[in-house]
Amino acid sequence: MEIIHISAECYPAAKVGGLADVVGALPKYQNKVGHIGKVVIPAYDTKFIRESEFEVVYDAWSNYGNHHFPYRILREKTNKLGFDLFLVHIQGLTDRPSVYGYGDDTERFVAFQIAALDWIVQWEHRPDVIHCHDHHTGLIPFMVSNCLKYAPISKVPTVLTIHNAQYQGQFGWEKLYYIPAFDLWKGGLLGWDDAINPLASAIKCAWRVTTVSPSYLEEMMSNARGLESLLRQERWKSAGILNGIDNEVWDPATDQMLNKNYNLKTVEKGKEANKRALCDVFQLDSSKPLFTFIGRLVDEKGADLLPDIFYSALQQHGDRINVLVLGSGENWVEGRLNQLKDVFGGKYNAYIGYNEQVSHEMYAGADFLLMPSRVEPCGLNQLYALRYGTVPIVRRVGGLRDTVVDIGDGGFGLCHDQASVWDVTHAINRAVDLYNDKKAFKAVRKTMMKIDHSWDRAATNYIELYQILK
Ligand code: ADP
Ligand code: GLC
């Protein structure tokens, strides 16, 4: 089967979070089992894109409403990602350094989706599936089925994967004219709650809907930023497929970003060396347990709780623990996390910003990784932590619930029920006890590293789902 993934992110070309990791890995694994996975993203001005070689495969004009624009489709020449990566280059709209966060994001992603479909519709053959990811590509299922100019591909099945229903991409009906011509009576398929809602539209129009963990699918029925009733209505065509991880990128035995590589046999020494290097850089004490957080500093990740959690844990444990944070997001959280450096120098540090290398060093050098998420559709950090022998401390929610089993239940992680300072500090206390029980701690590390979360399983789950649609 030929599967076209259309997305806003794809690692390593453009990454903000886990969406990039998924779209950068799933097609590679689909190719490994004999299918053809391809990826289409906007041509941003990122380092990877600037430094890679592309060839122009298509060159044309398109429009959203009366806004006409020239665009080019570029193909990465060397297949270095293990799949064909195509970029949609629209001068002035896509060619910017960031993926999101501009006042005209609606126009950028509408133009991207239209250009991508204009290109696909004139291919000599039809792909077997168009697989859309999140709201940035959420207008595609509607447009494929209903826009007159896409009639030749109207029978190509579309699949939507919801990575995060918190973001829906709503815009006003006054922009309806952006959408290429369709029978106006079908316009209701675009809307939800008095606005055009790309995520809602995709849920209505895609042939199948998936979410990135089974628990998140269930949770969305009662907690999905206003889309609950729609999701309940479309439950029949929905499935929860747990994400995998790219075992080639995330392997402590070969990871080029680490200070020292290690495997199941050498984990103790390997982690120690990585921890020492990390602690040297961040002025921490490698003889004490190292607690970390990596991620977007936003409410859904429970990031607003972090300053109080660290304050209370560091007060309580005095000189017996270290904390290191890597993340960026809400200004006030960044500010408070920075302030803590003055209070707890030598046992606390924070890197405010995005740094792929430091994240790998942290998964390898840390003892514990905190994820006190309020919402976590899947979560990849805990899966990377497991593979690197770092014990996850997670709230029982979404994909965290599906992937982390508490040591009290015979598992390998530390789980808590509430996103609250009390629950997390209690879990940190349990973690300190575990750390001090050297034998148990070593055993937990080995158990975690043996767990296989590679994409092999999930890639097959997706293929089975597409096959139903043939
Ligand atoms: P989400 O996509 O909701 O942000 P995930 O757990 O699915 O959460 O994926 C987050 C991804 O982004 C992981 O690969 C994680 O290592 C990475 N990441 C998040 N914040 C940072 C950061 N500040 N620096 C480097 N990598 C980060
Ligand atoms: C989203 C979710 C995260 C998930 C990722 C990849 O960003 O917030 O939980 O792991 O997508 O599917």
From TrEMBL:
Amino-acid positions noted as binding ADP-alpha-D-glucose in the UniProt annotation, renumbered to this chain: 15
EC numbers for this chain: 2.4.1.21
Entry keyword set: Glycogen biosynthesis, Glycosyltransferase, Transferase
Pathway: Glycan biosynthesis; glycogen biosynthesis
Reactions performed catalytically: [(1->4)-alpha-D-glucosyl](n) + ADP-alpha-D-glucose = [(1->4)-alpha-D-glucosyl](n+1) + ADP + H(+)
Domain Glycosyl transferase family as annotated: residue spans: 283-441
UniProt keyword annotation of Protease present: no
Pfam annotation, one family: Glycos_transf_1
Domain Starch synthase catalytic, chain residue ranges per copy: 3-232
Any one Gene Ontology BP term: glycogen biosynthetic process
Any one Gene Ontology molecular-function term assigned to this protein's record: alpha-1,4-glucan glucosyltransferase (ADP-glucose donor) activity
NCBIfam families in the cross-refs: glgA
Function: Synthesizes alpha-1,4-glucan chains using ADP-glucose.
Family: Belongs to the glycosyltransferase 1 family. Bacterial/plant glycogen synthase subfamily.
UniProt name for this protein: Glycogen synthase
Organism: Pedobacter endophyticus
